[in-house]
Write a structure and sequence with these properties.
This protein is of the alpha/beta class. It folds into three domains: 4-156, Alpha-D-Glucose-1,6-Bisphosphate, Chain A, domain 3 (3-Layer(aba) Sandwich); 165-362, 3-Layer(aba) Sandwich (Alpha-D-Glucose-1,6-Bisphosphate, Chain A, domain 3); 370-443, TATA-Binding Protein. It has helices spanning 19-37, 51-66, 79-88, 121-131, 152-164, 188-194, 221-230, 257-270, 287-295, 307-317, 340-354, 358-362, 387-400, 426-443, and strands spanning 4-5, 8-12, 42-47, 70-76, 93-97, 106-113, 148-150, 174-178, 198-202, 234-238, 245-248, 254-255, 278-279, 299-300, 321-323, 329-331, 370-376, 404-410, 416-423. It has a seven-stranded mixed β-sheet with strand order 1-2-6-5-3-4-7, sandwiched between helices. A five-stranded mixed β-sheet has the order 9-8-10-11-12, sandwiched between helices. The protein has a three-stranded antiparallel β-sheet with strand order 17-19-18, with helices on one face. Strand 1 and strand 2 form a beta hairpin.
């Protein structure tokens, strides 16, 4: 793929991803679905709070209606809200404008099909051909030109869906929410309010430039302090488009995606709700998760990094729980994508049902020290064939033996090579990473 990576078309707004790209995506999508279905296409569009999201939304909508599609605007909403409403509202496809946890200067365009799944690659390839001028798309004329519909009711339906998914009360529970000045800002509090919680919110005043800035799931320190200072039962931090969630226990400790998989997996299994008794993590999950799942007599099936790979495995084999250390958790019995707010509700379900603190629920899982270094590389595509790097990896693995592991991979969305090691001590993990990073910098600058 030239433009679309593992998480859509993403890059610096106005530079790598321009309004012209947005317009052309809208043009092709509006024409493609209309031609395939032989009727006027219905496309739903959501966005996060970045300043550039409004620019890109205008471009996409102009392209859609110019090709004869009707564009339904959800305005600011979490990415999973677009996926949910695409299916619930029977739209032909959905478009989300967001760069997730990236800085506000970046933006992205994610496409989902009518089933709420990420768009098929063959369609993305055809969009790329159109962007590059390799094919033509006709303009609609006369009454065939599409129209734009303000669809705020779609966001309200998504909020109602989240509330309805919780069959428990949060009366007497004190919860902290870090909305990352992003998509969760207008959704998360109403959900917890409706369930009766005492809700304390931070970072929920977006200004177009402050999304993810020292807040949210990539910057947990403020929420950790906030939970302890306010004496809260738990805290939840979302990323910019609220498809991820990390938690903070009552002591101020971070509960990452691996711990969430453990807590929810053991609970669901106890109540006969974990399909196949299996959890689906990725290769980036901590060794401690695998050992804790073994101790709990649960199976696990490891996938490559990316929620797309996690869900593909879950869908193919009928599993009901999977996710990533970053907090992208998929509850397959409820949804087909990660949803940060849904994840926080599921954690609260466990806390309420088990009548335990979050720290106690996480206690059986011992986290192995993990060191991850992202090395910027303009030659990341040469990693597979770089023997010097793999020789360094083998040397590190030999040194760690069965008391640790090493993982080296490329980022699917950025010019980065990720080098990760886990070991019984942080020093051992750091030494392993340092040795490999020095070779990567030398061989793949």
């Amino acid at each position: 793929m030239k433009y679309f990576g593992t998480d859509g078309f993403r890059g610096e707004a106005g530079c790598v991803l321009t309004v012209e790209h947005a317009y052309k995506i809208g043009r092709f999508v509006g024409w493609y679905y209309g031609a395939r279905l032989e009727r006027r296409a219905r496309v739903i569009v959501g966005k996060d709070t970045r300043r550039s999201s409004y620019m890109l939304e205008s471009g996409i909508v102009a392209g859609l209606v110019a090709s004869g599609a009707d564009a339904y605007l959800l305005h600011v909403i979490p990415t999973p809200g677009v996926a949910y409403e695409t299916v619930d509202g029977r739209f032909d496809c959905g478009i989300m404008i967001s760069a997730s946890h990236n800085p506000y200067t970046d933006n992205g365009i994610k496409l989902v099909n009518g089933e709420g799944y990420k768009m098929d690659e063959d369609v993305l390839e055809r969009i790329e051909d159109y962007i590059d001028g390799n094919c033509e798309v006709p303009f609609a004329v006369g009454d065939a030109i599409g129209c734009t519909i303000d669809y705020m009711q779609g966001r309200n339906r998504y909020i109602a869906h989240l509330i309805a998914s919780a069959n428990f009360s949060l009366q007497g529970v004190r919860v902290g929410l870090d909305c990352a000045n992003g998509s969760a800002s207008s959704v998360a509090k109403p959900v917890f309010d409706a369930l009766g919680a005492e809700v304390h919110v931070i970072n929920s005043v977006p200004d177009g430039l402050n999304i993810n800035v020292d807040c949210g799931s990539t910057h947990m320190d403020r929420l950790r302090r906030f939970v302890v200072e306010q004496g809260l039962d738990a805290g939840f931090a979302y990323d910019g488009d609220a498809d991820r969630c990390l938690a903070v226990d009552e002591r101020g400790n971070v509960v990452d995606g691996d711990m969430i998989l453990y807590v929810c997996g053991t609970y669901l299994n106890k109540h006969g709700r974990l399909a196949g008794g299996t959890v689906v993590p990725t290769v980036m999950s901590n060794l401690g998760l695998f050992k804790a799942l073994d101790d709990a007599k649960l199976s696990f099936e490891v996938t490559a990094v990316g929620d797309k790979n996690v869900y593909a495995c879950m869908r193919e084999k009928g599993y009901s729980l999977g996710g990533e250390q970053s907090g992208h958790i998929i509850f397959g019995d409820i949804e087909c994508t990660g949803d940060g707010i849904m994840t926080s509700l599921r954690i609260m379900e466990v806390i309420r049902a088990e009548r335990e603190t979050l720290s106690a629920l996480c206690a059986p899982m011992k986290v192995y020290p993990q060191v991850l270094v992202n090395v910027r590389s303009e030659h990341k595509e040469d990693l597979d064939g770089c023997e010097a790097v793999w020789a360094a990896v083998r040397a590190a693995e030999e040194e760690l033996g069965d008391k640790g592991r090493v993982l080296v991979r490329t980022s699917g969305t950025e010019p980065l090579i990720r080098v990760m090691a886990e070991a019984e001590t942080e020093r051992a993990a750091q030494d392993a990473v340092d040795g490999i990073v020095s070779v990567v910098k030398r061989e793949l600058p």
